[in-house]
Inverse folding.
């Protein structure tokens, strides 16, 4: 079986920046990534690169910023009133918060704090960076109807869900 739309893929990956620094490693956490292909569960460039790959494949994929987390947008770096953080007593550079934006909730990172202002960055922390994924594909299977309806893999007994799919399909 190969990776295609509506299939659940289980893989291990190591993510590095363009300097080779490890940013994330699923093996170190002993937690493989499981995603539903074709449902925007992972960055677009990686998903395109995985299409057609088979179980057991190992590959290295380098993504430019536009294919990964996008280009940095300096308009997303803005000062806001400290009162926007409610009664938060401790605010420090590097802290991340959920903020309500015009397009819904968005994560922001604090860059600078003064007595009355907090400068935040709403860019993804990896925006503007070239990234390299080293991937090993562990398993590929058809998604269940429930997973297709939700748009992502569901935890639990996949075999039981597939039996239910066959029973009512």
């Amino acid at each position: 079986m190969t990776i295609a739309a509506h299939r659940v893929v289980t893989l291990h990956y190591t993510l590095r920046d363009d300097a080779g620094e490890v940013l994330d490693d699923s093996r170190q956490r002993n937690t493989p990534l499981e995603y539903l292909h074709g449902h925007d569960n992972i960055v677009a460039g990686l998903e395109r690169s995985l299409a057609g790959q088979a179980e057991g494949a190992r590959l290295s994929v380098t993504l430019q910023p536009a294919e990964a987390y996008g280009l940095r947008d300096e308009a997303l770096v803005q000062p806001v009133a400290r009162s926007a953080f409610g009664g938060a007593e401790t605010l420090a550079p590097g802290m991340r918060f959920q903020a309500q934006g015009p397009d819904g909730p968005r994560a922001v990172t604090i860059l600078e704090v003064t007595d009355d202002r907090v400068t935040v960055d709403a860019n993804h922390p990896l925006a503007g960076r070239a990234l390299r994924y080293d991937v090993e594909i562990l398993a590929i299977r058809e998604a269940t109807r429930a997973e297709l309806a939700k748009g992502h893999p569901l935890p639990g007994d996949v075999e039981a869900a597939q039996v239910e799919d066959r029973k009512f399909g």
Remarks:
- The chain has a mean pLDDT of 90.
- The first strand starts at residue 7 and ends at 17.
- DSSP finds four helices and nine strands in the chain.
- The chain has two domains: 7-69+127-155, 74-121.
